[in-house]
Amino acid sequence: MASDNPRLRYVLLAVSLAMAAVFIYAGIDKLRDPLQFADSIAAFGILPAVFINLLALGLPPFEIACGLLLLGPRTRRVGAIAVVLLSAVFFTALASALLRGLTLDCGCFGAGAPSRPRMWIELALDAVLFASALFVYLRSLADRSVRVAVTEP
After folding, report:
1. How far apart are CA 56 and CA 73, in angstroms?
2. Cα torsion for 38, 27, 137, 140, to the nearest 10°?
């Protein structure tokens, strides 16, 4: 049974811890300067102005919560699906900016100089986070199914 493989469990734990660290760090970093993060969000030109401050104040605590959820075995699946959704949104926003020819600082990990090469790196990071979170979600779902099947008569 795949869920009994200790190596797979260690990989799942390592990937979960790495993603948790990324999201907790990113959330805390954005909380340090919400005005700068709001400016980064506005630079994308996607959201109406009325939603920018709301997102700048609400996203960092949500990212921290996702990271914390990834740490617990019982909450890991919920954290993973939230990261899947967030990563997809981040990827879409960044890809949209690149396709529109924008050069900006996405604000993903604090303020920096606007740079297209950095945007491409952050786009790749979003893809890796998406794939990692999907792995954790599906693996956690499979482990849960095995546990339920074993405990049922």
Report:
1. 29
2. -160
| CA angle at 110 for the pair 97 and 82, rounded to the nearest 5° | 70
Q: Where are the alpha helices (DSSP H) in the chain?
A: 6-32, 34-43, 49-71, 76-99, 116-151
Q: Please check whether residue 66 is in contact with residue 83, taking contact to mean a CB–CB distance below 8 angstroms.
A: yes
Straight-line distance from the first to the last Cα atom of the chain, in angstroms, rounded to the nearest whole number: 19
CB neighbours of 109 closer than 8 A, spacing ≥ 6? 25, 26, 29
Nearest of 153, 145, 93, 80 to residue 123 by alpha carbon: 93
Question: For the whole model, what pTM was predicted?
Answer: 0.86
Q: Which residues contact 92 (CB under 8 A, 6 or more apart)?
A: none
Using CA atoms in the order 116, 97, 104, 134, what is the torsion angle rounded to 10 degrees?
Answer: -80
63-115 confidence digits (pLDDT tens): 999 999 999 999 999 999 999 999 999 999 999 999 999 999 888 877 778 88
How many structural domains compose the chain? Answer: 1
Q: Range of 107's domain?
A: 2-151
